[in-house]
Amino acid sequence: MTKPEIEFPQGPAPTELVATDITVGEGAEAVAGGIVDVHYVGVEFETGEEFDSSWNRGQSANFPLDRLIPGWQEGIPGMKVGGRRQLVVPPLLAYGPEGAGHRLSGKTLVFVIDLLGVG
């Protein structure tokens, strides 16, 4: 696998989570509350500016889903290992409304996530 190029949705930022499978995996399925091993890239919807990428660190990230932003908690379950999914996450499912105290508060975020494993 290689680091994905993010293709931007057209039009205004969505107000609800939009999950789009780029590649459907054939392995074990991620479940709500489970642990996932992922590679991901995150960019801001408005600017296209990358704010985080496990690819740049050279290693995947292993997380319990229930510790992640709501958009990931809702958008990753159902993915299968080997899959790649794009999530467009509105502020209320990401880091909250403008002024919520995180540098990404108030921003719609786009992630491309590769599911490498589940636990």
Walk me through this protein's architecture:
This is Peptidyl-prolyl cis-trans isomerase. It is an enzyme of class 5 (isomerase). The chain is mainly β and 119 residues long. It has a single domain (18-118), classed as Chitinase A, domain 3, CATH 3.10.50.40. It is built from two helices and six strands; from the N terminus they run βββαβαββ. The chain has helices at 54-57, 70-75, and strands spanning 18-23, 35-44, 50-53, 61-64, 84-89, 109-118. Strands 1, 2, 3, 4, 5 and 6 form a six-stranded antiparallel sheet that branches. A hairpin with a 5-residue loop joins strand 2 and strand 3. The radius of gyration is 13 Å and the shape is globular. The mean pLDDT is 95.
Feature tags:
single chain, 8% helix, 119 residues, 2 helices
SSE layout:
Layout: E1 18-23, E2 35-44, E3 50-53, H1 54-57, E4 61-64, H2 70-75, E5 84-89, E6 109-118
Antiparallel strand pairs: 1-5, 2-3, 2-4, 2-6, 5-6
Short description:
The chain is mainly beta. It is built from two helices and six strands, in the order βββαβαββ. It starts with 17 loop residues before the first strand and ends with a strand.
